[in-house]
Design the sequence.
C-alpha cells in the first residue's frame, strides 16, 4: 500500500498571491501533479492548508486534491480554520489501511503557533490504540520531537513528553509523520525496549532552513512530498522533490 504525505500549502484566496519563494497555489498544483504519478492508495495532508484563513483558499486546495484518483484526508495546522475545512471536506480521526491503521491527531491550539494535545485528546488516543493492535501510523501537524532548529522547536508540540509517555503502552505504533517544520526529517525515537520512526516532510510552499537558530527560508530547496510504502508489518519511506 502506498501513502503520500503532503503538507503546508499555505494557500491564499488570490491564486496569484506570492509567498517568500514562489506562488503557493502554483507550487501546490505542481506537487499534486507529481503525486498523481506515484499512484498512491491514500494521500494525507498534514495541515496549514491555508495562509489567509479564507474559504476560497480551502476551495483551491480541494480543487487540486480531487484530481487525485484515490481517497485523501487532511488535518488542521496552526494556520487553519476547522469550520472552513469541514465545510469543504470531512475531518476524520482514523483511516483503515487494511493491515494498518492511521490515526489523525489535531494538535492545533487556536490562535497559537505551537501545538498541544492535552489530557482529553491523549486519553482518546490511548483508547483507540487500546482497541486495535494493528500496526499504526500517526499523522499530526506539530513535531512531537525536537527537529534541531531552535525557533521551530519552541513552537512544536508542547506536551511532547506526555505524548510519548502515553505511547509507551502501545508498541504497535510504528510510524509518526508531521508537518509544520517545512523540511525533510527522520529520527528513530527510543521508547521502552522498542522505537518509533518519526518523519517530517518538505512543504509544498516555502522550505525552512534546517537547524537554524532563528527563522530562515531555505531558498535552495524545492517543494516536495513523502512516500510511504506499507508491506505487511514492514515499510519504507522516502522524500521526492518537485521541479517548478
Sequence:
Amino acid at each position: 500500500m502506498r501513502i503520500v504525505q503532503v503538507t503546508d500549502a499555505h494557500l491564499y484566496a488570490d491564486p496569484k498571491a506570492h509567498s517568500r519563494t514562489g506562488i503557493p497555489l502554483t507550487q501546490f498544483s505542481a506537487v499534486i501533479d507529481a503525486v498523481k504519478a506515484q499512484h498512491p492508495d491514500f494521500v494525507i495532508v498534514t495541515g496549514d492548508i491555508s495562509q489567509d484563513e479564507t474559504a476560497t483558499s480551502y476551495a483551491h486546495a480541494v480543487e487540486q486534491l480531487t484530481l487525485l484518483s484515490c481517497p485523501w484526508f487532511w488535518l488542521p495546522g496552526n494556520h487553519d480554520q476547522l469550520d472552513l475545512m469541514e465545510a469543504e471536506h470531512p475531518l476524520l480521526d482514523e483511516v483503515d489501511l487494511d493491515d494498518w491503521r492511521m490515526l489523525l491527531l489535531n494538535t492545533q491550539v487556536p490562535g497559537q503557533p505551537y501545538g498541544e494535545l492535552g489530557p482529553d485528546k491523549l486519553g482518546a488516543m490511548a483508547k483507540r490504540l487500546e482497541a486495535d493492535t494493528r500496526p499504526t501510523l500517526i499523522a499530526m501537524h506539530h513535531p512531537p520531537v525536537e527537529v534541531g532548529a531552535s525557533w521551530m522547536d519552541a513552537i512544536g508540540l508542547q506536551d511532547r513528553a506526555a505524548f510519548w509517555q502515553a505511547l509507551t503502552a502501545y508498541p504497535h505504533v510504528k510510524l509518526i509523520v508531521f508537518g509544520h517544520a517545512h523540511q525533510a526529517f527522520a529520527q528513530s525515537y527510543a521508547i521502552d525496549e522498542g522505537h518509533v520512526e518519526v518523519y517530517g516532510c518538505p512543504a509544498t510552499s516555502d522550505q525552512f532552513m534546517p537547524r537554524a537558530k532563528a527563522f530562515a527560508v531555505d531558498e535552495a530547496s524545492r517543494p516536495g512530498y513523502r512516500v510511504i510504502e506499507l508491506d505487511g508489518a514492514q515499510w519504507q519511506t522516502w522524500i521526492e522533490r518537485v521541479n517548478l
User: Anything to note?
Assistant: Helices lie at 24-36, 55-65, 82-88, 118-131, 150-153, 160-167. The longest helix spans residues 118-131.
